[in-house]
Amino acid sequence: MSANLLLGLSPILIVSLGALLLMMAEALSKLRNEARESPSSSLAMGSAVVLASGGVASLALWLQGPDNLMEARAALAPWLLIDRFSLFFFVILTLGAFLTVLLAGGYLPEHKLDRGEFYPLVLLSTAGAMALAAAGDLLTMFIGLEVMSLGVYAMVAFRRGSPRSVEAAMKYFLLGSFAAALLLYGGALLYGATGKTDFSSISFQLAHTGYANPTNLQQLAWENSTPLMVIGLILVVIGLAFKISAVPFHMWTPDAYEGAPTPATTFMAGAVKAGAFAMMIRVLMMAFGDVRSASWGSGWPPVLAALAVATMTVGNLIAGRQESVKRMLAYSSITHAGYMLVGVVAMAGTARAEANGAVLFYTLIYTISTVGAFGALILCGSRGAEAVSYEDLAGLGKRNPAVALALSLFIFSLAGIPPTAGFFAKLYLFKAAVSGDYIVLTVIALINTVIGAYYYLRVLVFMYFREPLPGAPIAKPMKSGHVAIALVFAALLVLALGILPSKTLQAALSSTISG
Question: What is the pTM of this model?
Fold first, then answer.
């Protein structure tokens, strides 16, 4: 194996080998019967170092330029595509997982869930998501999807003594398996229609179907395979919609998010959703990016636009009715999937490069903001005095101003209020949709943004303008250096990318999908 190939694969290899080393370290630590110390402190920091190394390697390759890795790219294509698009998502995924393991380093010991296998699960799922983001073939895509998903199923059920956690994991596993089967069956139909599994070849075949007067047997075969392609596309879109929790394929999301330990919820809302969107963009723009498949009259854009409208609207309306803050954030993540779908639809229009960059920038900001929001919620409560409902947050601004300020910052970013990065993420996304002539879709998204401000600002009302009811349990903030480090880092990113967003946006704009 050449050094060039190892360099191209270095981000995935670092995370994967780091996961294996952590598994060995965790197993060896169980053999010691010394002070029975908590494994989370060392494993969390070890995981953070591995993920930071993977992120730095991805950033270094992005800065160096994938064109300098031609040997590696040629050897890996079409199964794995090492381009700026995949490297940008590698940075997002490692960043989301980095913040997750730091949060877990404080949460798991506090809530008596301190089992070391959580950290290798996060790293292995991250490696699967990275393979998913770089996949250029249906087979690689499915393998990456399953590696990512299996680790997440285990993390959802990590609280083994909780019936709610076990029920949530079972629902997620069954529905996730059903969605994976649909995706696999759709891929099989596409292979049957085209004889190919890589996205570029499928796109080439699609571009040559539909001849009015076929001139040879090959053209006639392609013409007759069109129904298989259409059905395959429908099944693939349904499978992808499930993974990003788009309405009406969102049923698993609230229960899984609420039943899982909060660090696992954080990972699902951030890194897993980012990996799923990378997969969706790669499939739609590479395999189904031809003129007819990506047209409003005969392709997937109107279907995705309908999903975007339903996802934004339903997510917002149900989120506003929740009394559990964690469940509200779950429906909020569904709503943000709808906003990102607006950007994906815009990629089929005339402003493809602008929409591509806007979606990548939005995914980065959303990942940081949602991980920060769940992390701040972790910090708001301790074992036996967790912050679950809005009432649990009443008076927090007076009792613990620093914790309330942290949660407020991330809530502002999710709501899209300046000068946080969330404001510019929405601004650039909606601007790209307008540039692509999707005016009505943009107006609907803006209306939903205003609706969403209600339940976000409700959190602030309870923290700063309400007092706990007499005799009501009061959430007691926990003390954890790991959680504090994660929140300070995320908060600095939210503010820095809000004040100076241009360089990061420019990097996102240059991270277009390679063919």
Answer: 0.91
